[in-house]
Amino acid sequence: MTDATESSAQPVRVRSVHLSYGHLNVLRGVSLDIHAAEGVVLLGANGSGKSTLLRTLNGLAQPQSGEIEIAGQSVINARGAALRAIRQRMGYVFQQFNLVSQLTAFQNVLFGVLGARPLGVLRCLTSTATAVDRDYAMACLERVGMADRAEHRPAELSGGQQQRVAIARMLMQQPALVIADEPIASLDPRGGREVLDLLWGIVREDNLAMLCTLHQLDLARHYADRIVGIKDGVTAIDCAANEVDNAGLSDLYAEAALS
Ligand SMILES: Nc1ncnc2c1ncn2[C@@H]1O[C@H](COP(=O)(O)OP(=O)(O)OP(=O)(O)O)[C@@H](O)[C@H]1O
């Protein structure tokens, strides 16, 4: 496949994915599409398999059957350089921020791109990153309003500030697809809204595709283009955010029947 075809390919295409952990059938035929510049919120009760589904997208969890394509590239059975190329397209924002505690905010952002290169950690620590990378890291910090905290370590930052640095680190990767796994679960309501405004604002401005798990239905409706809900291992809801009905959402959180 040519680069031009790859870049125009659908960011995420998941078909009939089945994944079990031993006897626990977590995903029993999940399908999901994310189109270019589309923001999708993934809903589902605790333990319904949202994080597992996210982990299948970058090959960290291996389904027993089904198809997964990221930008037209098959993830299942991808190894080595092919898997690394798929992962480089994806930027992550996690519930627990996952910043390196010994590194400053600036170094953590640099790590977003250097972590995948030879001697990447050393370059972050010894300031041997190129001027281009350093300038871009600072621009990413500026974009999330954290340039004045560039030399602070994570322990010196609030949760909301740490998540801003994590968003800058994600931007440093210049991803085509953003995966955000409960990005506000560790923040208070006001801080959470600020982080979601920032994250979704960047995604919209840069025309990125995003898959974001959330537990707040009002926020899902507010930010998403489309809402996908999983229950009992299958895609129970898949519709435009302004079309999702309350009964469907309540049913999503009614007692699950995983076995
Ligand atoms: N590596 C693993 N080995 C065995 N079981 C696992 C593993 N990872 C997840 N599970 C189980 O799979 C089920 C789905 O977990 P998952 O974390 O995907 O759910 P979730 O929808 O993200 O939940 P939450 O909303 O609580 O974060 C759970 O019952 C969990 O205990």
TrEMBL record:
SUPFAM superfamilies: P-loop containing nucleoside triphosphate hydrolases
Domain ABC transporter: 12-257
Intracellular or extracellular location(s): Cell inner membrane
A Gene Ontology molecular function term of the record: ABC-type phosphonate transporter activity
Source taxon at top rank: Bacteria
Pfam family, one: ABC_tran
Alphabetized InterPro entries for the sequence: AAA+_ATPase, ABC_transporter-like_ATP-bd, ABC_transporter-like_CS, ABC_transpr_PhnC, MetN_ABC_transporter-like, P-loop_NTPase
Any GO CC annotation of this UniProt entry: plasma membrane
Topology with respect to the bilayer: Peripheral membrane protein
Keywords for the protein's UniProt record, in alphabetical order: ATP-binding, Cell membrane, Membrane, Nucleotide-binding, Translocase, Transport
Name under which the protein is recorded: Phosphonate ABC transporter ATPase
